[in-house]
Amino acid sequence: MIVLIFLPSLLRKSFVRQKKNVKHTKKSPVKPKSSKYTGAALYKTKFKPHWTKKWPCIQKVHNDSFRFHCTVCCIDVKCSHQGVRDVLMHMKGKHHIERAKEQEYQPKIDFGGTNDLLNQKVMRAELKMVGLIVEHNLPIAVSDHIASMVRDIFPDSQIAQKYRCNATKTTCIINNAMAPAIKRKLASEMNERPYSLGTDGSNDNSLKKMNPITVRIFDPVLNKVVTRFLDMGCTTGPDAGKAESIFSVINGKLEKYSVPWNNCVSLSLDNCAVNMGRINSVSSRAKAIVPHIYIDGCPCHLIHNVAQAAGKSFHTATGFEIQDFVIDLYYWFDKSTKRKSILVEFCEFCDVEYREVLKHVSTRWLSLERAVNRILLQYAALKSYFVSEDDRAPRF
């Protein structure tokens, strides 16, 4: 009983004593945790241009300053940890040494000396033939047959006998000689004269989203405005379709060729929000650099939207759907030689030239005009054909 009576007072005194101890207790300052790593472990090392002069096989990686590209191994390697030591460790690696030995025994492509007059003529002939292949979009494999054929057709020509431009050499000339020269020429013209840019993203399902960058500029030699291809901008990853990624690729290509934005007078884009939005878009970023730039939406999409709205109104008023009609008409004659033969007879009767019925594809909506015009050219023959058809025949 006595313990129970004095228990509350004892607890109160104990609590006050603990509280005083807490007040007079000073906390010791917490020292920051020091890392055992220093130097390159904390600070990343960037690629240095003088590495290429010392090791020609080491090249800079575009859009990544913490990696280098090895032309022997054809791979990108990190140099952010120890810089030069990362380069040396890679070059002393087993894979790099084996690839370097393999390249020593590979046959070299003879491009000919430029001092010899005959070699200059041979080089000119090869460039002319490569230009012909590119201009007419011929397969590069054709060059394997051209080389042997030229030597066989012209046995008395020294130029033909020294002609050695097969598929491998043709590819090297296109990618490493002609393309860089054409792009440098275009870049110099863009530095001197106003130009317009245009780009549109691919709609395929691959890992890379392609954004071809085209340029419209005045050509004083041809005395007209021409369209030229500058470069292919590719975006990858989950943000491949975002405005920041697309604009970064376009801006990177202009910086690559040292082309200023100030000469850009207009930018042609698709009409989606990523390109044409007011706040976070490709056009808003372009206007932040060049306030006077004119943003041009795709006129083909605008015309199609107007025509589509007019077609819907026409269908509401008349009950006639033009797109369904064009598609059904194509499939009526498709894969039927008999129906096409009968239509030819009706064309001759109506004194109309027979033409194949064109197929309209909804995803290629610009084909609608061509398909409708083709129908109108032989409308009399088509009308006579379907009027004379048996009513029991299945028709749309």
Protein architecture, described:
Helix content is 51%, strand content 13%. The protein has 16 helices and eight strands. It has helices spanning 2-24, 50-54, 84-91, 94-105, 117-135, 142-153, 158-161, 167-192, 243-256, 273-276, 282-289, 299-318, 322-333, 337-349, 367-377, 379-388, and strands at 58-60, 67-70, 75-78, 195-199, 208-219, 224-236, 264-269, 294-297. It has a five-stranded mixed β-sheet with strand order 6-5-4-7-8. It has a three-stranded antiparallel β-sheet with strand order 1-2-3, with helices on one face. Strand 4 and strand 5 form a beta hairpin. Helix 14 (337-349) packs across helix 16 (379-388). It is extended, with a radius of gyration of 36 Å. Residues 1-7 and 22-27 have low confidence and may be disordered.
